[in-house]
Amino acid sequence: MKEISTVAQLREAVADAKKAGATVGLVPTMGALHAGHVSLIERARRECDFVVVSVFVNPTQFNNPDDLRTYPRTLEADCEKLTAAGVDVAFVPSVEEIYPEPDTRVFDLGPVAEVMEGAMRPGHFNGVAQIVSKLFSYVHPDRAYFGEKDYQQIAVIRRMVELEGFKLEIVPCPIKRHDDGLAMSSRNVRLSAEQRAQAPAIHRILAQSVEDAVECHDINALQQRVVEAINAVDGMEVEYYQIVDALTLQPVAAWDGRHPLVGCVTVWMGDVRLIDNIKYPKA
Ligand code: PAF
Q1: Which residues of 190-212 are buried (b: 16+ CB within 10 A; e: fewer)?
Q2: Domains annotated on the chain, with CATH
Q3: Cis check: omega of the bond before 93, within 30 degrees of 0
């Protein structure tokens, strides 16, 4: 594996691979890699000849300076995982390399970026669009891989791709969970042992909601039940739970029990903000 820190070296490595006829897969990450990231990389490895993984904690997508400061950084362990996963290039740039000057671009991300995370974290998705569009413009991958834990992020990235006219396939990959159901996340390491023991309740309650939805098609009632059940768990506070159209991410007024929906939740456990989601109806 080549570890590269400049855009010029990255462009050169990718150009060489493309000249040799390779298809290129990109897995953008912010490091602190876990088995969820590894599953994206393994998929990219299966589907592409040349795999690039970026490791960059992107400051422009953090609307909370404390979150940026405390975001876990584990570069040495990350590089070991990337080598073991057979990655061709690890792109590990500095902030100055990516942003030699401030990125003032404002993307017209539309309604998918206005709800849920977009409403709670102003500027977050614009920052995601900035970094992902930069990465796409350096690599021009055939495919880029993103985890469905950040379900809304994938919709926002699709919108950015449409706006910028990138030609590539966005590959959404299923959420990877611990055996107890907790969605894998780089932020999980910040949970205390007690919080970590409680955290699987989030997925348990969402899964129960999908069961409940077999009988109950009242979206408001389903949402309310989830919020009440999670808030009843010691140390948990729901920021939002919204069941939305799986494609447009807009609220649904009435549901026929069949149309694909996704329920997205954000839960605070102390100062750790966890997100998760689940698809309706029951498969
Ligand atoms: O999902 C993430 O880890 C980040 O938002 C991404 C896509 C790597 C952009 O910084």
Answers
A1: bbeeebbebbbbbbebbeebbeb
A2: 2-173 (3.40.50.620), 186-280 (3.30.1300.10)
A3: no
- Cα of 199 from ligand 1 centre, angstroms: 22
d(C-alpha 2, C-alpha 10), whole Å: 10
Protein residues whose CB sits closer than 6 Å to any atom of ligand 1 = 28-30, 58, 61, 128, 131-132, 150, 153
- Cβ 254 vs Cβ 283: under 8 Å: no
Q: To test the ligand 1 pocket, which listed residue (26, 38, 92, 128) has its Cβ within 8 A of the most ligand atoms?
A: 128
Q: 217: CA distance to ligand 1 center in Å?
A: 34
Q: How many helices (H) and strands (E) does the chain have?
A: 11, 9
Q: Name the pairing type of β-strands 143-147 and 169-173.
A: parallel
For atom 1 of ligand 1, the residue with the nearest CA is: 29
Catalytic positions are 37
State the alpha helices, DSSP H only, in 86-141: 95-98, 117-120, 124-139
Atom of ligand 1 nearest to the CA of 28: 8
The answer, as to whether pTM is greater than 0.85, is yes
Distance of CA 34 to the CA centre of its chain: 13
Task: Tell me the pLDDT tens digit for each residue of 12-68.
Answer: 999 999 999 999 999 999 999 999 999 999 999 999 999 999 999 999 999 999 999
> The tokens of 159 are what?
């919108």
Strand positions, DSSP E, 184-271: 236-245, 261-269
pLDDT in tens, 104-140: 999 999 999 999 999 999 999 999 999 999 999 999 9
Neighbouring CB atoms inside 10 A of 248's CB total 13
Cα–Cα distance measured from residue 274 to residue 179, given in angstroms and rounded to the nearest whole number: 17
